[in-house]
Amino acid sequence: MTELGRRGFLTSAVLGGVALGIGGTGTAAAEPAADGTGCGPDFGPVTVTPADPRYPSLQDVYNTRYTPKPGAVRLAGSTEQVVAVVNEAVAAGKRIVPRSGGHCFENFTSSPDIEVLLDLSQLSEIRHDTKRNAIEVGTGATLGQVYRTLFKRWGITIPGGSCFQVGAGGHFAGGGYGHLSRRYGMVSDHLYAVEVVVVDQSGKARAVVATREPDDPNRDLWWAHSGGGGGNFGVVTRYWLRSPGVTSTDPGLLMPKGLRAGRRRNVTWSWDTLTEAALTKIIRNFSTWYERNSAPGTPATKLWSVLNVSHRSASEAWMVAVIDDDVPGADTLLNSHVDAVLAGTGVKPVSDAVSVVPWMTQQGWPPDEVNGRYKHKGGDLRKGFDDAQLATIYRHIGSTDYTNPAAFFSLNGYGGQVNAPAPDATATSTRDAVLRAVFSTGMWESAADDARHLAWVRKFYREVYASTGGVPVPGETNAGCYINYADNDLADPALNTSGVGWQTLYYKGNYPRLQQIKKRYDPRNIFHHTLSIELPG
Question: Is 447 in the same domain as 307?
Answer without folding.
Answer: yes
